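Supplementary Note 3. Input sequence used for the single-chain structure prediction.
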Amino acid sequence: MKKTVLIAAVFVAMLFGAAGQGWAASLVANIDVSSQTMTVRYGLSVYRWSVSTARTGYFTPRGSYRPQRTARMWYSRKYHMSPMPYSVFFHGGYAIHGTGAVRQLGRPASHGCVRLHTANAATFYSMVREVGFGNTRIVVTN
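The predicted structure, written as discrete structure tokens, is reproduced below.
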């Protein structure tokens, strides 16, 4: 009897442990173009950062995405080799990445990418690399 109870207790602990790990491993980044903010939910933690999305004449794609690739440092071949530190590409050439133009954060200023303060981009990049592309969701809305 004791052995059966012990086995059941171990099974329940494993079941709840696995469920807890799966839940803690989820990462969701909600980018609100209208407020120029990115809210990141990572386990029990919530981060809210100012961003810059597409300025007039350019477009930031709306929708729900998973990361496609990451780059610790990327240089835009399309825009004069502009540095894009801690890039998380989510739709073709569109990425969430760090910027040196921190004064423009909070208003539209990019060619379509989602710009973050470089320290926040490094944090997000690390989270994505930790949980994996399959456990990360990037949602861009108005």
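The chain has two helices and nine strands. Residues 2 and 8 are 10 Å apart (CA to CA).
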